[in-house]
What does this fold into?
Amino acid sequence: MAFPSIPSSSDSAETPTVFSGLQRFRRRHKALWLGLGICGTLLIFGLPVAKQRFSAVAEDAPGIEASAVEVLPVETLAIQPVAGYEVARAYTGEIAAQRSSDLGFERSGQLAEVLVEEGDLVTAGEPLARLDIRNLQTQRRQLEAEKARASAQLAELQAGPRVEVIAAAEAAVRDLEQQLLLQEAQYTRRESLYIQGAISAEELDQFNYDRNALQARLDQSRSNLAELQNGTRQEQIVAQVALVQQLDASLADLDVTIGKSTLLAPFDGIIATQSVDEGTVVGAGQLVIELVESVAPEARIGIPTATVSQLQVGTRKQVNLGEQTYPATVASVLPEVDVNTRTQTVIFQLESVSVASATPGQTARIELVERVPTDGFWLPTEALTQGIRGLWNCYVVTQAEGGDTYTVQQKAVEILHQTGDLVLVRGTLQPGDRIVANGTHRLVPGQQVQP
It folds into this structure.
């Protein structure tokens, strides 16, 4: 029998040191030692119980696996391919009046009367304002008097001398002829008396001068009689006609000036602004009234060139002005393309019913239905689940071969367009595939279902 060796002096010195260290460790970590003891107890008594439970679960496992297979009822739909889709796009523009005029007088003067107010509807040719024309009316009366006198003289020239005037001229000629005969006889006697020395040479010369003067008067009377008998010269008539025509031209020019003193509407429209009031002295060309055409306003809307090609001149569309919709006709398509928006301006002619509501500069909107050619399938939004990399998933119902069992397969699709609760997708789908229409959150690939 072996006995323990007696420690040497060096071992005896070391043993109390180790023992004391263990004692200090136990005091400091008393809770740790307690926990280790509890865990050991649980392991000793719990292992048999756990082994028994696991054995029971293993025996019941076939039943549990059998009950996990669950067939879910689903609603399906058969999909058919489409070659494109229609989308409604809205384009905006503005109302542009066909014509807008800043109206003013062609001459200066005092504004005597304004016949319209802002907002009034006027027709073409309707007077809008008038200038003071009293001085022009006075000038016209003066010209009318001058023309009347010139016209009377012309009529006299065209009629020629009167019979009474010619008769008086003939009588004057006969009178002078008789006086000249008497003067000749007296001159002959005076010559005899001069030869006899009864009269002086001075008296004879004076008598001879009187005879010559009487002869000149007779020649003048005969010339006047001949002029009267020949009638008025054609040159005089032409000159008088020209004078009358000159007065007519002056009257016409004055009438034009008077006419320009009344401001007329050049077209049917609405009075937009009235710039001056009665009594104001306005200059030639100064703005008095702004008139905006009110007949058949136009809507100018920029539309992409690809869409413009689908519009035909003369087709009817609906144009929205605020909350109201008005019929319009495609009037024309401007050829220029906006370099910034890449659109062309399409002019829509609105019907007259929109006159009261359409104002220049007002926003106009039109909705056009465009067809986008693309292959795809329409699915309800509830048939999709979120996929990866921007794709979506749907479930296709397939039937097992030789049985009535149905399962679902997951197919990745790409969304092309959405309208309401429908989406147009493309992917690995085939025409006639039956898609789970809703409740896809309950499904997993390979899930048995009952359509």
Remarks:
- The mean pLDDT is 82.
- Residues 141-255 form one domain.
